[in-house]
Amino acid sequence: MLTTDDHSPAFPGVRLVGAPHLLSHPSVDVEMQEGVTVGEMLDRSGIDPRLARWCHVEIDGREIPALWWDRVRPKAGRVVTVSVVPEGGDGDSNKALRTVLLVVVMVAALAISGGALAGVLGASFAAGGYGAIFGAALVGAGLSMGTMGLLPPSAGRA
C-alpha cells in the first residue's frame, strides 16, 4: 500500500493503473471510490470491454480471477493493476508458435526453390531447376507435417 510519511493512505480512494487498449501506450491512472467492484472499475476506466477476457487484474500484486471481479471491492489505499495479455484463442496455446514455425518453413522452401542449395548439391538445384523445385516441395511438406506433429492444433468444438 502506498503511504505518506505519517503512515496514512497516500490517497483516500482506490487507485486503478493500467492500459485501456491492447496496443495503445497511454495508460490509465485514476482514483476511484472505495466500495466499487473491480468489474465496475474496469467499466468506468475506459478499458475496451472486448479485451476483458485477456485482462489480468491484481490488487497490490495479488491476482484476482475474473470470476471474482463483480464481487471484490478493494479497500481505500489499494492499487488495482490491469494489464491486457493476449493469448491463443480457442484454448490453443500453441497457435502463435505453430504460426511462426510455419512461416519459417515457407521461408526455407522459398530459399531452396531460389537456388540456395545449388552450391552444395549442384546445378540441378539452381533457381528454377527441377531439383530446387522438388527440394522446396519436399522440405515444405515435410517440415509442415513435422510442425503439426510437434504442435498439433487443438480439437475443434462440437
Could you characterize the architecture of this molecule?
It contains 4 helices and 5 strands, in the order ββαβββααα. By secondary structure, it is of the alpha+beta class. The protein folds into 2 domains: 14-86, Beta-grasp domain (Ubiquitin-like (UB roll)); 90-150, no CATH class. It has a 5-stranded mixed beta sheet with strand order 2-1-5-3-4, covered by helices on one side. Residues 1-8 have low confidence and may be disordered.
SSE arrangement:
Elements: E1 14-18, E2 28-32, H1 38-45, E3 55-59, E4 62-64, E5 79-84, H2 95-113, H3 118-121, H4 130-150
Parallel strand pairs: 1-5
Antiparallel strand pairs: 1-2, 3-4, 3-5
Helix pairs in contact: 2-4
